[in-house]
Amino acid sequence: MKRNLALVTGGAQRLGKAFCLSLARMGYSIGLHYRHSAQEAFQLKKEIETLGVPAYLLRADLTKLEKVDKLFEILCEFDEPLTVLVNSAAVMPVGNAINLPLEDWNATLDLNLRVPFLMAQRAARIMTKGGLIVNVSDVGAQKAWSRFPSYVVSKSGLETLTRVLARALAPSIRVNAIAPGLVLRSDTVTPEEWNELVDRLPLKRPAQPEEIAFALEFLIRNEYVTGQTIVVDGGYSLI
User: Kind and range of the H or E element at 176?
Assistant: First the structure.
C-alpha cells in the first residue's frame, strides 16, 4: 500500500512529537524534521516505526534558505507524496518591547513566520494532487504579552499568513492554523507562574498534547475547512 507523507517541522519534541505520533497512527509516513534535538528525534523515530509506518529523520536549519531547498529535494526522492505539512518549529524569547535585542526579534520572526512562508511555497510546488498545510499558532496571537513581544507578533502574523495562503492555494491545497493555549510549561515560565495561569483557566487544567493533535486530525478529515484558526485553549481566550 502506498502511503502519503506528512512533514512536521520541529517534530522531535513537545507538540511536534504529538503531531508526529497522531499522523503516524493515521497511517502517514512521517518526515520528522529537527535541528538540535537529535537524541529525541532518533527515539521518536523508533516509536513511530513500532506503529508500522516509516519515519524519515530530516535535520536542517530552516532559517537558511539553501537548507529549506535541500530538504525539499530530499522529499522529492521519497516514494510517498507529500500531502500534509505541519509548521510547528518555533522559538519564544523573553524580553520586553523596549529592551529586546534586535537579534532576538529577527530570529523569532525568521523561524516563526518567514520559515512557514518558505515551507508553504515549496510544499505547494510538490503537492500536485492537493494537500493540507497547518501552521501552529498560539492563543497569544490575540494577546499583548509584554514579556514575549516578538513571539506574539510572529504568531499574529502567522494567522494572517494562514488566511492569505488559504486564498492563494485554493482549491487544491487547504491552509489552516491551530492555536493552543497552555499545554507544556516552558523554561521561561516558573512552576509558580504556570500554576497561577492554569488556575485562571475556565477548565482549570492545561491541555494534553494529544488534545491539540486532535485538532490536526479534524483538519485532515474535514476537507471543507480552510483559512481558519482552530483555538484549543481551555478557555484562555475568554480571560
Answer: strand 173-180
Name the 3-class secondary structure at 118. helix
Q: How far apart are CA 6 and CA 56, in angstroms?
A: 10
Residue closest to 9 by CA, chosen among 51, 79, 69, 68? 68
Cell numbers for 152, please give them: 506574539
Question: What's the rounded Cα separation, in Å, for the pair 145 and 182?
Answer: 14
pTM of the predicted structure, to 2 decimals: 0.95
Query: Do 182 and 201 meet the contact criterion of CB atoms below 8 Å apart?
Result: yes
Taking a C-beta distance cutoff of 8 angstroms, is the pair 122, 72 a contact? yes
Instruction: For residue 129, give the C-alpha cell.
Output: 494532487
Q: Is 56 a catalytic residue?
A: no
Q: What is the mean pLDDT of residues 170-188?
A: 95
Query: Tell me: the pLDDT tens digits for 30-41?
Result: 999 999 999 999
29-34 and 5-8: which strand pairing? parallel
Q: Which amino acid is at 182?
A: L
How many alpha carbons fall within 13 Å on the CB side of residue 1? 9
pLDDT at 189 over 90: no
**Placement of cell 534558505 in the chain:** 65
| Choice among 28, 34, 56, 151 that is catalytic | 151
Reading phi first (left if > 0) and then psi (alpha if -120 to 50, else beta), residue 234 is in left
Q: What angle do CA 130, 17, 212 make, to 5 degrees?
A: 75
Residue 141 phi, psi (nearest 5): -60, -25
